[in-house]
UniProtKB/TrEMBL annotation:
<dbReference type="Pfam" id="PF13407">
    <property type="entry name" value="Peripla_BP_4"/>
</dbReference>
<dbReference type="GO" id="GO:0030246">
    <property type="term" value="F:carbohydrate binding"/>
</dbReference>
<dbReference type="InterPro" id="IPR025997">
    <property type="entry name" value="SBP_2_dom"/>
</dbReference>
<dbReference type="GO" id="GO:0030288">
    <property type="term" value="C:outer membrane-bounded periplasmic space"/>
</dbReference>
<feature type="domain" description="Periplasmic binding protein">
    <location>
        <begin position="43"/>
        <end position="293"/>
    </location>
</feature>
<keyword id="KW-0732">Signal</keyword>
<dbReference type="InterPro" id="IPR050555">
    <property type="entry name" value="Bact_Solute-Bind_Prot2"/>
</dbReference>
<protein>
    <submittedName>
        <fullName>Unannotated protein</fullName>
    </submittedName>
</protein>
<dbReference type="InterPro" id="IPR028082">
    <property type="entry name" value="Peripla_BP_I"/>
</dbReference>
């Protein structure tokens, strides 16, 4: 972490792994194991895994004296399985898996057959011993609140507003939790979907689906529940093309997302510092490699111990906090079209 503004959150992450009461997994790492096996899901341009999580996990594990075997499935379920088989044949004391389209489930079964504990990282995997992520239902609640607040600021009645609902890929267990959290807020406010899009994490596909939704509602759109910044960007491009600016939700605090927030095209984004998540997963993995059985601060519905971290809802006036924490740069954010907005909101 580069700035002190997030030190307290990092401390909470550590406490969640090592100090809070709650459910602990039964599986401990094989005695004498010194190797942590990690599988990341993809390396697409602009994603966090290679530039962010890989070095953070590797440093934490190797600094603690353990070997880190970190590989990337490159958006290929078959490669995910192959990597896992290779890692398991060499021996793993613990596995940290970011699921890709359900590929993690069979790896969990193989690991548990060998007595190796598995940490589902960022995305839930059935049968994992632990799940480490930001509190996904809270993320969804924040997204729902973005729509509530945005419509209120526009002086539009949420009960009659034309809202397009979208969600992430249904194959991703997080997507259901995000949507559940969002709906808990929107339903309570009396909102109803004018159109519900098919779920996807593919930004280009989200744009196509939104064009179809836009046509279905005859261009009457008052707000859009978008599951992340990538989808939001494609949706906003279509809104721009049609001369509309309405509240749009998001998450990830990506450069494009933060820029859209600064420009008033996206109401807010949910900031989830990957450094905090990587620290929580590393601390948990190290504890398991030491033979400990840490308790978690929450559990999933299936009983999986859940190290749940606190997300941060980020409106335009809080974008500067993401920069101060070192998770975005002025150079990347404050391009020519965004420079005035950066100045307005103190991003420097």
């Amino acid at each position: 972490m580069k700035k002190s503004s997030l030190i307290s959150i990092t401390a909470i992450a550590a406490a969640a792994v090592l100090g809070l009461s709650g459910c602990a997994a039964d599986t401990a790492a094989p005695a004498g194991s010194t190797r942590a096996c990690v599988i990341l899901p993809d390396a697409d341009s602009g994603t966090r895994w290679e530039p962010g999580d890989r070095p953070a996990l590797e440093k934490a594990l190797t600094d603690a004296g353990y070997e880190a075997d970190i590989q990337n499935a490159q958006s290929d379920t078959a490669k995910f399985a192959t990597i896992a088989d290779q890692q398991l044949s060499k021996g793993c004391g613990v596995m940290i898996l970011v699921d890709y389209q359900g590929a993690g489930a069979s790896v969990v079964e193989k690991a548990k057959a060998q007595g190796i504990p598995v940490i589902a990282y960022d995305r839930p995997i059935a049968g994992a011993d632990y799940y480490v992520s930001f509190d996904n239902e809270v993320v969804g609640q924040m997204q729902g609140q973005m729509i509530v607040d945005g419509l209120a600021a526009a002086k539009k009645d949420i009960k009659t507003a034309s809202i397009i609902y979208s969600s992430g890929d249904p194959a991703d267990g997080n997507a259901a939790m995000f949507l559940k959290g969002a709906l808990s807020v929107l339903d309570a406010a009396g909102a109803k979907a004018a159109f519900t899009m098919e779920g996807t994490w593919d930004g280009a596909k989200a744009g196509t689906l939104f064009e179809q939704a836009f046509t279905a509602v005859k261009g009457k759109v008052d707000a859009v529940l978008a599951p992340n910044d990538n989808n939001a960007a494609s949706i906003i491009a279509i809104l721009d093309k049609n001369g509309l600016t309405v509240p749009v939700s998001g998450q990830d605090a990506s450069v494009a997302g933060l820029q859209n927030v600064l420009l008033g095209k996206q109401w807010a984004t949910v900031y989830k510092p990957f450094t905090i998540e990587a620290k929580a997963a590393s601390d948990l993995a190290i504890a398991l490699l030491k033979g400990e059985k840490p308790a978690a601060n929450k559990t999933l519905e299936d009983g999986t111990p859940f190290i749940a971290l606190d997300p941060i809802s980020t409106t335009a006036d809080k974008v500067k906090d993401v920069v101060a924490a070192g998770d975005a740069t002025v150079e990347a954010l404050c391009t020519k079209d965004v420079a005035a907005a950066c100045a307005k909101y103190g991003v420097k």
